[in-house]
Structures
1.
Amino acid sequence: MENNEPTSIIVDCDNCNARVQAEIVASFADTNSDDLLDYINYLFCRCPSCSSPILLQQEYDYDGVDLFWKFKAKLYPNPSFHINPVIPEQLQKALIESIQCYKSKANTATVIMCRRTIEGFCSLKGIQEVNLDKSIKRLRDEGYINEQLFEWANELRLSGNEAAHNIGSEFSLLDSKDILDFTIAILDFTYSFKDKFDKFKARRAS
């Protein structure tokens, strides 16, 4: 690495289940493109606590003044869950907390956090009905989610209600993982695939 490059980076270590200041052992920039925004940078890092290897991918971004590297993905270890960076920051934070609950095997807490995330999703879309049931129906009726995602969101609501109000309810690790997967899929569809498809249709129409 060049002298002006950073020597460490904050990243989650899956082995330690903690956020660490990982040492950057080596880096490689793939600049095989005429477009600077297509450049990719790879960081090979080492956890300071357990010495586990971590491979990160960065991409160029432009803030109107400067070009800079920003986080794109963790390539190794392959994460169990991927949070799309286009998802709003508030919802990303809720998902991260949900994932932390899951990794701690706090299954009921995972389910409750997923329900809270869906409530936040409704709120960011300007939908705040008297209850989550009606809010999810409005998400569907206004075209934010399709019928399949509506079914998933409704199951999340029901599971979240059970987790929050029924002291005798139990959720397995697989149950909580499925619910977390469904929550991520709903947000990924809305903020990535649906927006991309809508822009594609508008571009073709013009």
2.
Amino acid sequence: MSRRSRRSKSAGENRWLGKLGIWLGICCLLTLTLIYGALRSYLHSDAFRKFLSAEASQAVNVTGEFARFRWDGLAVETDSFAARGGTGLITAVHADGLRTEIGLGAVRRGVWEIRDSSVRRLEISVDATAPLAPPLSPGVSPEHVAKSRPPAWIPRQAEIQQIDIRELTIRAILNQGLATLSGMNVHAEMAGAKDAYRTEIEGGSIHLPFPIAPELLLDRAQLRYQNQQIFLSHAKLRAWENGRIEATGEWDMKSQQFFADGDASGINCEEVLPIDWSKRLTGTLNSSFALHNRSGFPQASGKLVLQNSVLTALPILDALAAYADTRRFRILTLNDAHTDWSWQRGDLTLSHLVLFAEGLVRVEGGLVLHGQEIDGIFRLGLAPGTLATIPGAETDVFLPGERGLLWTTVRVTGTLDDPKEDLTERLITAAGLRMFDQIPETGEKVIKFTQSLLKNPSPDTLETSSKIIKEGKKAVRDVGGILSGILGGAVPPEPKDTDEIQ
């Protein structure tokens, strides 16, 4: 074949291939157009609305439906989504003002892309006390879910890539009562793995049904969701006037177990204590905390430290001020104040508690607060010479110990409104016994002290007391009675100046 013939044949083949390519391109374009038209037709059908209703229902194990769709190309709006649950964790869902855009980039792998979604308001009701129900699936879904199955060539999964919720409210029924989270702004987006999302929440308030928990105002929280587990990477909250809380944690939606830990700082004592005690203890509270329900019920623990703290008008301190003939115990500036704490089933336990005022007093021990009732045991250390005016106090009740202090054990009972301690009675008993042993010198000393505590001592009382001491008749009982009337059952009046006592 000549060279010219070969060139002519090659040119003819190229023209034929070119025309074939054009026709193939036209066919592909027509096919894509037909597919797009078919997909768009399905998207705009009521079947797609029911399909998305089924997908949303299955995702949170409820039975719900979107209101009528309004389309603009691939963007769609709807007024609401309303759902009711069965016996599962989520009992109701209601969303208003929904908008999203459908992406076709994942159609080849059988997925509708739900992109740039937004919700004006979302309300979720949760019952954490109910047993978990099995998740909905196409084979066992309610009738409207089964009818929503798309044709075989249509994607059968929906994938939310990003969503913004302007106002989120969650109402959760817990064993302890109702917890609410309201007014939160939420942004969530896919985090790589299937059904994994990163979420950022800003604003809103949290109300928990625990007596020790205040209203919490959320600054910002970062979470991650995957495999029905929620991980709190970091959260910053505010409580009371100046309190700041930072926390991390996790929640397993399958087992309903949760755990959180963190730190609270800048909290004023008067904001967290009962009214009566808020007048007695001032300062700034800082505490670590850990909260979980691994035992089947919520419990919390941590270590608390008080800074710039002042203890005022505590009955036992007022008694010590009267015994010691000094005002120093009535208002104590604490150099050290800390305790470990735990809370469960309504009981608050303080352990390894330390209250220390340099040069005056050190308290060590713990207590259990059950409702308003107190039950505590403490070691009380006083500087030598503090109770020198009470016979027997520094030899029979207090004994030398560590830190150069004199120590005794004190039992505290009663209620927050009316605390009781057993130190007064033991000091009375010791004073009576020692006074009887050291008559008449000590007896005269105690009578002088008795006179200083009585605003208007009668001559008859002093004369009777003197006779009892001198004669030694029924000394322990009667002298104990005199002191009991002065010191027992009521806070002693403030001591007079030393010159008046003498």
